[in-house]
Design a protein that fits this description.
This protein is α+β, with helices and mostly antiparallel strands. Helix content is about 30%, strand content about 20%. It has a single domain, classed as Sandwich (Jelly Rolls), CATH 2.60.120.330. It is built from 8 helices and 14 strands.
């Protein structure tokens, strides 16, 4: 099959019937697959290259240097998570061995003055920066660029849902998004039974912006009961919607099950995932006015999902 793609720059430059047709195509993709390759994103190549270099340098550090920025206690959202620290399938109630990966995680760059104690103790905890020259500025430049890109995508989403294009703006004035750099070490021999590089899961928030290592393999989405490989083209992102957007659209759009498959003797693989999440207190209610889902607040909903994945 030809994997769905959407050109954001073409949408933003279009008007009238052409803009409406592109929005309708985006709506179709989000209803059918919830996954797409995003072209025309407009990000500066230097910003992308900078964060790739920073991530590679971090994962090349010796274990003790990476562990120096490990979360200080269970439930701390940011810092380094080493091997055997997470099993994403557990967020769906499936007991599996730990995922074959390590990650570095960072949170919002700005804290609103009226942040609640619960928000401060979870999503606004400080990011734990490694002692690595150039890492923090490269990370923050990429995070800021992805925050802007996510807002542009949310405006395209509004158009796709036939809403005013600024409809979601008031829900993402202070998004509690997270950026995760992922390293999947080379596999030696066969993995354990039901063990994956990232277990089958759906994402939790409004949308995810994934930057896979160009040409890499392993990311799969479930379509019509089958696992389908997701391409990793040079210069493009992979976008998927999350559970919160599925709730928002009363299941009109799908938060698709996906995984990073583990096979014997795979080479190492890296990716960068930006998990866009509406403001802590944003109340998510089905857009069609139905009672398909009860209202939830973005922050507590995310916190509950996050806590279910620990090992």
């Amino acid at each position: 099959m030809s994997f769905p793609a959407f050109d954001l720059a073409a949408f933003e430059a279009a008007s009238g019937e052409r803009r409406a047709a592109l929005a309708a195509d985006l709506d179709r993709i989000c209803r059918e697959t919830g996954f797409l390759v995003l072209e025309g994103h407009g990000l500066d190549d230097a910003v992308i290259a900078g964060v790739w270099d920073a991530a590679r340098a971090f994962f090349a550090l010796p274990p003790e240097a990476k562990q120096a920025v490990a979360p200080p206690y269970q439930g701390y959202a940011y810092g380094y998570l080493g091997p055997d620290a997470e099993a994403l399938a557990r967020s769906r109630g499936e007991e599996t061995p730990p995922d074959l990966k390590e990650s570095f995680n960072g949170g919002p760059l700005r804290v609103p003055e009226d942040a609640s104690p619960d928000a401060m103790n979870f999503c606004y905890q400080p990011t734990l920066w490694p002692d690595l020259p150039g890492f923090r500025p490269a990370w923050e430049a990429y995070y800021a660029a992805l925050e802007d890109l996510a807002a542009r995508i949310m405006r395209a989403f509004a158009a796709a849902l036939k809403l005013p294009e600024d409809h979601f703006d008031r829900f993402i004035a202070h998004p509690i998004s997270a950026l995760r750099a992922l390293h999947y070490p080379a596999t030696i021999g066969a993995p354990l039974d039901r063990q994956q590089r990232a277990g089958a899961h759906t994402d939790y928030g409004s949308l995810t912006i994934l930057l896979p290592q160009p040409g890499s393999q392993g990311l799969q989405v479930q379509m019509d009961g089958e696992w389908v490989d997701v391409p990793a083209p040079e210069g493009a992102f992979v976008i998927n919607i999350g559970d919160l957007m599925e709730r928002w659209t009363a299941d009109a759009w799908v938060s698709t099950l996906h995984r990073v498959v583990a096979r014997p003797d795979q080479p190492a693989r890296q990716s960068l995932a930006f998990f866009h999440q509406p403001d802590w207190d944003a109340e998510i209610v089905p857009l069609d006015g139905s009672d398909a889902y009860p209202p939830v607040r973005s922050g507590p909903y995310l916190m509950g999902k996050f806590q279910a994945t620990g090992v």
